[in-house]
Amino acid sequence: MHDPFYKRLMPLIDHPQADIIQFVWEREGQGHPGVDVAMLLTACGNVIEYLADLAETDPPEAWEPRPIPEPVGWDSLSNEERSFLEAALAAVQLRVPGVRLILFGSRAAGTARPASDYDVWFVFPDKTPDPHQGQAVGEVDSLARARDIELDVSKSTESDWQHPQEVSRPLIERIKKSGVEVPG
Prior knowledge:
Blueprint: H1 2-9, H2 15-30, H3 37-55, H4 79-95, E1 100-104, H5 106-109, E2 118-124, H6 130-146, E3 151-157, H7 158-162, H8 169-178, E4 180-181
Parallel strand pairs: 2-3
Antiparallel strand pairs: 1-2, 1-4
Helix pairs in contact: 2-3, 4-6
């Protein structure tokens, strides 16, 4: 098992990344687990510096961002998907009136497999207290578990949804274009 790693991958990976991969490889039982913690911390620092440097460089000329998929629309979702999302919205609005739910990802794009998770974005009214937001998310999580549904939740306030911070702007703008809002 080590030969493909050393012969094929090592020449393509920077040294700090190789140290981390080596550590994980060994910790997962593929080799000797005795790795010096100081070496691991140094390797993590090197990887962080490498990624920071990479973030400051221009993308390659041939690089194209992934196209934003067209949403399938509410009526094109399966009965199971619509049923879960309607129940989720009803449960959440009992705790936080005015909250919005937006399905995004593979289910909103119509490319989901049967076991695909539900990516759901909560848009909470401004000034919704954090504990109420947590309870609302917990309600939907409980509903998903009861139906054996894998759930991935993200959230924002209405203000952050309308005027996203720089760090979340690309994701929110993508969801605005490709998401399917649960009708309320």
